[in-house]
Amino acid sequence: MCFKQIIALVLTVACLCSTCFVTTVSAETISTHSLVSSVSPLYDIADSVYSDLYIIGNKAECKSQVFGVNASKITVEQTLQKYSGWFWIWNNVDGASWSKTVSSSSAQLFNTKSVLTSGKYRVKTVCILTDRNGKTETVTVYSDEKKV
């Protein structure tokens, strides 16, 4: 065996051995539902935020809900997004962004978008909650992904 073959063999064995020690890790992703059970200690004003998407034929029904504790004003921004397929990029769908501001401790936003092309969609919901003292919190959640 020549020197180059020995080096190639050693490198091959090292590569194969290194795959035996690979550890897979993952993190839980909060997609649609409530902040109550999983991340509520991080928020003083936001109690729960929901973002849901329903696909019926080629029509998307987007629903966002937010509930606050001692909130005096809530702004909800809702955007339908489509997966581009490249580098995990989600693009906003033209004509599918809405917002609403209420002087309340809860808010809902329900909108529809028709004539969707085939692909994967989700709803992005951004909520800005303000309490009586002027403190604000911003919470962003995403719906589950749905295909057309």
CATH architecture: Sandwich
| Rg, Cα atoms, Å | 23 Å
Q: What would you call the structural class? A: mainly beta
How many E strands? Answer: 8
**Percentage of helical residues?**
10-25%
Using brief descriptors, characterize the structure shown.
12% helix; five-stranded antiparallel beta sheet; mainly beta; three-stranded antiparallel beta sheet; Immunoglobulin-like; 148 residues; 1 helix
Quick structural gist:
The protein has 148 residues and is mostly beta strands. The protein is 12% helix and 51% strand.
Can you walk through the features of this model?
The chain has 148 residues and is mostly beta strands. The chain has one domain (40-147): Immunoglobulin-like, CATH 2.60.40. Helix content is 12%, strand content 51%. It is built from one helix and eight strands. The protein has one helix at residues 3-20, and strands spanning 46-56, 59-68, 71-83, 90-102, 106-113, 120-131, 136-142, 146-147. Strands 3, 4, 6, 7 and 8 form a five-stranded antiparallel beta sheet that branches. A three-stranded antiparallel beta sheet has the order 1-2-5, with no helix packed on it. The termini are far apart. Mean pLDDT is 82; it is low at 19-40.
